[in-house]
Amino acid sequence: MKNILITGGTGYIGSHTCLALLKRGFNLTIIDSNINSSSLSISRVKKILKDEYYDEKIVFFKGDIRDKKFLDEIFLNSIKQNNRIQGVIHFAGLKAVSESLFQPLVYWENNVYGSICLFEIMGKYDCKNIVFSSSASIYKNNSLKPILETSEIKPCTPYGQTKVAIENILEGIFKTSSNSWRIANLRYFNPIGAHESGLIGENPLSTPNNLFPIVCRVADGSICELQIFGNDWPTNDGTPVRDYIHIMDLAEAHCAGLDFLFKNKPQFINLNVGTGIGTSVLELVNKFMEVNNCRIPYKYSQKRLGDLPFVVAENKLITSILEWRPKRNIEQMCRDGWQWQKNNPNGF
Ligand SMILES: NC(=O)c1ccc[n+]([C@@H]2O[C@H](COP(=O)([O-])OP(=O)(O)OC[C@H]3O[C@@H](n4cnc5c(N)ncnc54)[C@H](O)[C@@H]3O)[C@@H](O)[C@H]2O)c1
Fold first, then answer.
1. Separation of CA 178 and ligand 1 centre (Å)
2. Residue 111's closest CA among 126, 90, 131?
């Protein structure tokens, strides 16, 4: 079976994707610096799979993708062991949008330089298949319409700019290598929730700044109140609308993306990964309370600079070309996410 390198594989999306890939039979080589994660997520993934058979299918290396020597050794060893890395899913990166506003250089250095190191070593070892974790934050989107892959690209934060830069680097590699690479940029919308076992989930090592982890912490009492930024947005109830996608649906999109790349001719493709369904902050909070029978006290506060009223994917392209469609609804996202938080209030 093919060996896939997962950078950032112990993180939130990475760990769920490792689970989905193992179920499909892939061998995995995982790299993570653990700057925002714990390698315990791998033992939890194995626990979910409940079979020693999987132990031999995963190797983990703690290290940084900016260390080319480290990457080189991993690729070389995979060849020596007759388990050559044939594809990469590249999650490793810093992702706190607001932090990137204050520390842009840290984001450029980690995300962009780290990616350059990775692509260079992939090229050296003739590994030319990659799924890259891009983001909906690259779009300009000031309208109330679903976003297409061809919509205007104009990120308003250094975080989003690093994602565009990495996509552009990949496009350059594709064009200058006689189109020999297979590259899929998956532009995620808002992944939330956790695996239904409650054994793996989102585990930010610093204060969370995304809505869903904050809602979970308000539910367990570790944050006393949710702040909703603005209630006069041009949406049905005045709160911002987002396209929330269950983390396992997102994980499965990576499996489908890899399958697609391996089965088709070399190409460079951009795909939105969302449900195409918009949910407002208020709708999400109300659904969370209803499904989990708990209280989420909230108050409205000032809108934040750069926030947008409506960020929802047009997902026709991905659902037409990949063997994938989102299966889980907002109830399941709320239930599974709370299950993880309740069982693991301090993370792993
Ligand atoms: N979670 C989201 O809402 C979201 C949305 C769009 C895109 N993304 C992107 O998806 C990817 C995964 O996100 P996530 O939510 O799982 O975040 P995460 O922080 O849980 O996972 C990222 C992982 O990368 C590791 N990492 C960071 N820099 C590294 C480096 N230089 N070398 C090795 N490892 C490094 C971290 O330790 C972490 O485990 C990120 O690239 C993120 O930008 C996430």
1. 30
2. 90
> Which CATH fold would you assign to the domain 3-193+244-276?
Rossmann fold (3.40.50)
Residue 236, Cβ density class (10 Å: 0-12 exposed, 13-18 middle, ≥19 buried): exposed
**What ligand 1 atom has the least distance to the C-alpha of 134?**
7
92 lines ligand 1 (CB under 6 A): yes
Catalytic annotation, residues? 159
- Taking the alpha carbons of 197, 251, 244, 98 in that order, is the dihedral positive or negative? positive
**152 alpha carbon to ligand 1 midpoint, in Å?**
24
Section 7-13 average pLDDT: 98
What is the spatial distance between Cα 123 and Cα 108, in angstroms, rounded to a whole number? 21
Lowest mean pLDDT among 146-150, 202-206, 236-240: 202-206
pTM of the model as a whole? 0.97
| CA 115, chain centre distance (Å) | 15
Nearest CA to ligand 1 atom 39: 11
Q: Which helix (H) or strand (E) holds 134?
A: strand 129-135
Q: Is the CB of 34 under 6 A from ligand 1?
A: yes
Number of H helices and E strands in the chain, helices first, is: 12, 14
Structure confidence at residue 239 (pLDDT): 98
Report d(CA 179, CA 76) in Å as an integer. 24
